[in-house]
Amino acid sequence: MKNITKILSLLLLVLMITSCKNEKSLQGYLVESQEKSGFITVDIPTSFLQLKSDAVSDEVKQTLKSIRKVNVVALPIKGNEAAYEVEKTKLKSIFKDNEDYKSLMSLKAQGMNVSLYYTGDTESIDEVIAFGYGNEIGVGVARLLGDNMNPAKIIEMMNNVKFDGDNVNLEQFSAIFKGK
């Protein structure tokens, strides 16, 4: 009986160790960044996104409804030069080491490196992530969360959406681009 108890205990221990992932996640990074000094974090509910016109297709309206929230985290380079390299490396590692994040595209423009990722499958995306960094501006990540989003429809919708700046403090966004 003691041997069975020891074997069951050992199996339970092995299951506990193997089931606990030490996988880094974007969600964990976003939560951690909210408490770090120098970071700019913004959560934008979709109620701040409005259509430019009521004369858009029902598909565009449905696509807007499929988006739940937008998260933005940025670390401007000015005054954060040492942290910039650390945070850039952390984010690169999150996207490289996690199979859930599938690459859409990468580009370099005006001193910035930008990569787009998504989770879900190509016909039903759950989140779209833009990760960018540059030696002049800093590092940041933006995440668009939704349910069953279609990439082609999101692009069409983005051409028909305006941001409701009257209901949000835009100083947070301008600070990202001014490097404050």
Protein architecture, described:
Helices cover 37% and strands 35% of the residues. It has 180 residues and is an alpha+beta fold. The protein has a six-stranded antiparallel beta sheet with strand order 1-3-7-6-5-4, with helices on both faces. The protein has a two-stranded antiparallel ribbon with strand order 2-8. A hairpin with a 2-residue loop joins strand 5 and strand 6 (124-134).
Summed up:
With 180 residues, the chain is of the alpha+beta class. It has helices at 2-19, 26-33, 58-65, 81-97, 151-158, 171-178, and strands at 40-45, 49-51, 67-76, 102-109, 112-121, 124-134, 138-149, 161-163.
Task: Describe the secondary structure blueprint for this structure.
Layout: H1 2-19, H2 26-33, E1 40-45, E2 49-51, H3 58-65, E3 67-76, H4 81-97, E4 102-109, E5 112-121, E6 124-134, E7 138-149, H5 151-158, E8 161-163, H6 171-178
Antiparallel strand pairs: 1-3, 2-8, 3-7, 4-5, 5-6, 6-7
